[in-house]
Every structure is written in C-alpha cells, then in structure tokens.
Amino acid sequence: MATLLLSVAILFFTCAQSLHTPICDAPDQGSTLQVIHVDSPCSPFRPKTPLSWQDSVLKMQSNDKSRLQYLSSLLAAATGRARSIVPIASGRAVTQNPTYIVRAKIGTPAQTLFLAVDTSNDAAWIPCTACSGCSSTLFNPSKSTTFHNVSCGSPQCNQVPNPSCGGTVCGFNLTYGGSNIGADLSQDNITLAADSINGYTFGCIRKVSGSSYPVQGLLGLGRGPLSLLTQSSSLYQSTFSYCLPGYKSLNFTGSLRLGPISQPQKIIRTTPLLKNPRRSSFYYVNLMGIRVGRRVVTIPPPAFQFDPTTGAGTVFDSGTVFTVLVKAAYTAVRDEVRRQMGKATVSTLGGFDTCYTVPVTVPTITFMFSGLNMGIPQDNFLIRSSSGSTSCLAMAAAPETGVNSVLNVIASFQQQNNRILIDVPNSKLGVSRERCS
Questions:
Q1: Phi-psi category of 193—alpha, beta or left, where left has phi over 0 and alpha has psi -120 to 50?
Q2: Is 195 in the active site?
Q3: Is 353 a catalytic residue?
Q4: Residue 394: its pLDDT value, please?
C-alpha cells in the first residue's frame, strides 16, 4: 500500500498542469474579491516542491489538529478554563499557510498583501517590517502616510487578548502551538476590491519565536468587535458570502462577496444562526441529523446539542480542512459508510480510518440542519488520489475528552463548491450549490 500511495500523482492540492492558465492579475470587482487556494499558481505561497499524496494528507491532518486546538482554546478561554490562544492565520494546508487567501491593499500608497479568509476569528493580523522571526511578505508601516499605532487608552486596546502597555502603544502577546507572537495594535486604510475602509484596526506583528506559527496574515470574518464585519458595518451591513473553489479545479479561484448588494439574486435556503455570548464570533448552527445515501444515521441527540456554557454544538469554519464530528456522530456515520460498502476491504491512512481501493458506492452525505439540508457529493466527502485508486472518508472524530470533544466543525473540504451566506442582521446562514471554480 505504501508503494502505491507514494507512486500516485500529487494530491489535488498541487495544481495540475493544464492548457488553461489562470489569470492571476485579474482585478477584483465592486465588493467581490477573488478567493485563491494557497497552492494555486496565483499564490505566492504555493509549495516549491510538490508533496506525495500520502505526505500531503498526513500534513493536512497534522495542521488540522493545530486549528482545532485553536478553536477549543477560544472556547476554553470563554468559559474561564484557559488563556486565549490566537493564531496569526488559520486553516493551514501543506506549507503551514492558510488554505484560502484574498488580495488586500493596505496603507497609502497601497501595499498589496494576501490575507487568509478566517470565519472564526475577529481581527486582522499582519506581519510587518522589522518583525523578528517573520518570513512572509511584510507590510511596511513607514511607507504609509496614513498608518498610526493605537494608544493604550483607546477602547480597541481592551478588545485584544493579553494587552500590555509598556509605553504609549497598545501591545499584546499571543501564543500559537509552540510559538510566541508579539504585536502592536495599529490602524491604517485597507482596500478590498473597490471598497476602501479608513482607519482599519489590525495587529502589526513585530516578533515571532518558535517554528509552529503560520507565516501568512489574516482577515477575520467573525462577529467580534475588531472583525471586518464590525469595523465596516455601515458599508457591508454585516453580510457576506463565499464560495470556496474545489481542490481539484484547474485555477483554484472562488469568490468572497461583501455586503447585501453583492449577493447572488437566486434564492438560497437558510438555517438560523445561534448566538453564543461566550464565543460570539463563531457561526453556530443547529445540526439535527446526518444522512448517508438514503439512510438517516442513528446518532444520540446529545452529539448535536447546542450549549453556550460548554461550547458544544456545530460551527461552520473556513480554516479547518476536514469536517470533525463528535465521537458518537462520527462513529455512526463511518459505520454506515462501511455497512453500505459491504465486504470491501477497509484500510487506513494517518487519521483516516475508512479507505478503499475499490469504487465507493455511497453517492451522497447530507447534513440536516434546521430548515436546510446540505447534500454533498463524493468530491466533498472522499479524499482521492489523482489516479482514483484510493479513496478515504474525509472526516474525523473529535477527541473523546476536553472542550473539543463537544464541537462539530463543518470544514472547508465539505464546503467547497457551495455558496455559504452569512447574514448577521437576520441571524441566518445559507447554503447553495455553486460551481465556484
């Protein structure tokens, strides 16, 4: 099996050679930004040396563990169990970079940067020049006439984790895995597509130690006080949608649409957003059941129960790659897939415990939310070698203990080629199948 895995062509994350060349310099239009996979030919963070399928899968699983640690740490901090652990960027893929990025222009004159799309974080974190330990493209504050630091007495200084005021500038320190990150709270103008936002507040990273930190910046699309939605509420009315391109698409481009006017005119079915005052930035929804093929799987109701106190429930997250279900739910779904596959031999790969070298006969898996069924085809729940000879169920079980044990995460692999609508004023989340690529 190992020989087979290592001999197959690179995973879908490595961009295939094609007669079609993506237009990397195509301008963003109106309030719509091009969403780029980090391994796209248009991305400055694509890997220099493609990994084998096996190595890619194992790397992604390892990075998802860091992402889930981050999500659980936010829940733990909100319930008073631990200090917050906040990343610069999230949803890292093969090269410790975010999975999906958008182009932003910061400062006057504008400097172009690529920032991660993160629906579970609030603020923007940007690596700046003179940063000790940063290795990514850096923003140079000294070249911007509109840049300034945020003072210690400002209201924004109370909205960042672990603020410190050794001088007049509001500073703060973050922890990510084995890395420590120091930043100054700053403000400058930011341009997204054709829209300009003056005095946008973000973290200007000045020091990083350790090797586990993601190197890219972050655009927070959560609901917190420093998020893009809050800072631009008069412009975008706390409404946006995104369509993540399929990992196997030739050009790896999707779209991020900001504001109600930019949304597609077609009707999108929705489910209510649930409010968790302890973790207000998360987009919680009411997952009621899961169907494998035509069969509704028997899952204990507590597996989906929403509880603001413990953080239990189900969230949509753009930063996690593979969907994670609490142990009881995942086991039931996995066992039903195996039952429908009959006597086919089951193998494993890293954290994936249900892999086959024969065609998988399960046509769809459906997440059943209140008022909305999200049916996904095989491309959204099977991770395949490019030759198609090996397929694995692209989901995982949450840990059996700890804060993470009660959180279901609908992740980007399952969201690909769907339009995900977030409408905060009307407290709803919509899903509509769309070919994003």
A1: left
A2: no
A3: no
A4: 93
